[in-house]
Design a protein that fits this description.
It is built from 43 helices and 6 strands. With 815 residues, it is mostly helical. Among the domains are: 100 residues, Tetratricopeptide repeat domain (Serine Threonine Protein Phosphatase 5, Tetratricopeptide repeat); 89 residues; 79 residues; 126 residues, no CATH class. It binds zinc ion (ZN) (2 copies). This is DYW domain-containing protein.
Amino acid sequence: MPSPNLNTHNFLYKVPFKFLSLHSFSSINNANFNHLPLDIQRFLSLLHEFSNTLLSVKSIHAQIITNSVSKHHFLSSNLVRSYSELGCLGLARKVFDKIPQPKPILCNSMLNGYLRNQCYKETIELFELMGASDWGFDSYSCNFVLKACMELEDYERGREVIKRAADHRVDGDKFLGSSMVNFFMKFGDFDSARLVFNQMISRDVVCWNSMIGGYVKGCYYVAAFDLFLEMILCGVRPSAITMVSLVQACGGTRNLELGKRVHGLVLVFGLGTDVLVHTALIDMYSKLGEHERAQSVFDIMPAKTLVSWNVIISGYVQNCLVYEAFDLFQKLILTGGGFDSGTIISLLQGCAQVADLESGKVLHGYIFRKGLDINVILCTALVDLYSKCGALKEATFVFDRMKNRNVITWTAMLVGLAQNGHAEDAIRLFGKMQEEGVTANSTTLVSLVHCCAHLGSLKKGRSVHARLLRHGYAFDVVNRTALIDMYAKCGNINYAERLFEDVSFLKDVISWNSMITGYGMHGQGHKALDLYHRMLDEGLKPNKTTFVSLLSACSHSGLVDQGRRLFLSMESDHNIRANEKHYACYVDLLSRAGHIEEAEVLINQMPFQSSREVFEALLNGCRMHKNIDIGIKAADYLLSLDATNPGIYIMLSNIYAEARRWDAVDHIRGLMRGRGLKKTPGCSLIEVGKQLHAFFAGEDSHPNSVEIDRILENLKSELEALGYVPDTSCVLRDVDEAMKIKSLWRHSERLAIAFGLLHTPAGSLIRISKNLRVCGDCHTVTKYISKVVKREIIVRDANRFHHFVDGKCSCNDYW
Ligand SMILES: [Zn+2]
Ligand SMILES: [Zn+2]
């Protein structure tokens, strides 16, 4: 202990007289000090008045030592308290340790010091020491330790403390009683809480509030209201806290009438000006969708706090009134009250809802200027906003600069990448997340499942499935449905079916839709229809998506009559009005099956402006069935919508080529060249080992390109020997026939198949996923290859699956 310098020395001798003349001791503590020796009284009053700086406390401490009163119990406990309040727990403990047999009053000072400095483990350790050394304890000691147990979520130890309190008969105290009630309520042990509550001799409003608040937090709203009535009958007047709990209960029950009645009670009990109650009312009305009522409560608030501003702003965002929320934010700024991270988080969520990137950027500016960019929740909301607006560069910028990232941050970034089509980057990010030891949650994993589905990566999909199983997330209906979708999209329809048919799986309509879609993609139209009828038998109501899945399943399997019946039954039997998607699927079904004229009539009768999808379906039908007249009309219309879509030119030129109208083909090519349009490069993915390999059409830079060339060269001669004739109509370049054939043999799926043959065991299955529709020649070639190399080849193209086995494809050349 340093000796006090001259200045503090003087100050110490000047102050007490002034202090003593002004204050009576009873104001220092509720105990009566008059029986204490005068010098002890003097130090107590000094500590009371001058404990706001460490220097003054140390000086007083030094004086205490000099005056040889450092062993005084009551004085020491005050010294411990003063040091603890300054956060100097080490010094407090030194004072404590100087007393050989501390009484509860001193121990409690130390316990309280630890508790208020969030040293929960130390609080419990000291209590253990008190028990082991037989120093004795009282209800206050138990109260402090119980709070520490609650903070550490240590239910077992808390129960031991309560048992010891009961053994020592200190549990009758009403403060400890409230604490015990709080403790049991926090851990959802409602029966024990009620038992303690019933045994309490004197119950003040705080005890009642603990019980009622606990019930509300545990969503036992009826119990909360019953207890409230009991409280009134016992003659206890409710406080603001009571009413806050009841208002929250009304929000929880989503019962507006009840909410209005509780609002009435608030006025009856004269709590109509209380800020907390008002804020709770605003929150309740917002949650119940009554933003006008929320606003009027807010308007009459006599003193608005930042919390109440935040609650009303967040209420508007919850009710999708984002711009009203911004108006309020402007008003808040005009009042000069300032805002905090809570305000901004709500507004960011609002911007994410309406994908308002510009306002989001303005908020980002505020965050930066206010120095709030170290707040994890805030930055996570920012990452989420940028991701939802598709601004991945900004999202990554914020993400990379964050020092602390939690699982929600990582998930927001990952979902952003996944939803903006960067599935591979999302999977890579997941790898990094694991390296940093962040445990994925259910949302992370499901979004990875979607990535795997997108990439057609069955192996990665399986490993994510295993992870979901390990964490016990795999049985949730959303997750299970995502897995079904993933297995179907990765070509393993049988496994998707197994997951779906599992008796323990409680399916919802989305699960049924996923399975129907899966069958459709795999050309199993009859199974899709059977499933639909089963779904109806089980009493489920189909939705719009169900019919999109069904119509497209019929379309991929050529089930025209069944599709027609479904389309008609949609409105007549299920009261679902057909939208553009339904029309597009139906037009696709008709035109694929060659009913081009019928499809055209249907388009003309559509109750809304025809969409691009509808005409693309018609155009594709025209290509398949060589209907030049309607094909040209459809292409013209599509080009009037978007003259830069290379797909349309290619389709049109295919139609002309089928009709051997080479002059027109040349003209189209000229147009494309003139407009600087290039075909989207084909890309095929194949998974070998743990790696996903990508091949682009025409590419010859792959490390294995020599071997790939050799394999393709051999295949070409074998296929030609079996009678294969190349179909060069889909090659648009102005080159001679030999060059065209050469370019066909560099289509991405052929490169990927050759790579697969090179690196996978003989006889094993080859899975490929492709970004574009497979071309006619590749389809023929893949059929031949499956026969020659005796392998099953599954190709997922932009539309559907093709299972090639022994020279045939599951699509029956219908795609
Ligand atoms: Zn091709
Ligand atoms: Zn096929």
